[in-house]
Amino acid sequence: MFIFNTPHNPTGKVFTVEEMQQISDILDDCPHVITLSDECYEFLTFDGRTHTPFATVGNNWNRTISIFSGGKLFNATGWKLGWSIGPKKLLYNGAIISNSMYYCFNTPGQHAMATGLDHVDTANYNEAGETFKQQTSTMFKANRDSLTQGITEMNLPWTPIPCEGGYFLMADITPCVDLIPEKYLTTHDYEPEDDRPLVNKNRINMPDGKIPRDLAFCRWLAIEKGVTMMPNSFFYG
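The structure corresponding to this sequence follows.
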């Protein structure tokens, strides 16, 4: 299985049709491979970019299951509801497996989101004449711009990474490494030096046994500066 994601979480990368065609050409040589295309943020593209479903490029339809999220679209992520689109031969077996694995569905949520989907592209949802999807994208773009400005103006030598779409904004903290106190880089066993509750420490190590720099950076800012962020190492090993 080839797992694909655009707009990409957490980098904010939006793949172009040309890039997806290159991937499709490679898959043409791998007829035994099917694709799971995560397109949960398809409505969150910024700066004039548009989302193109991977299944519509090249010969991808017959080998692709596309995943979408009502939880993301409707800002109700706790519900974990979504849908899949693809050829019957792929969805059929997935439905059998799902039906035997899940036994507690949020049926009212399913009905609510199914009803909402009929209206997400209706014009004049707000005073600006936008649809619900457009308004959501506008809101997240404003959030992205605000965070980008905040990172740029902070008295730290870090740099925001351009975010083309999606839910997250990444930053390059390479110049900040020398600012991180040694205890955050060498041990998980530290505690705040005041009356706050003890830290519930996630023990994540790099292959060399050291603590990931992004985790050390985020713990330092959270404990000593009161700024909370998510380390990228939480997304991948």
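The mean pLDDT is 91.
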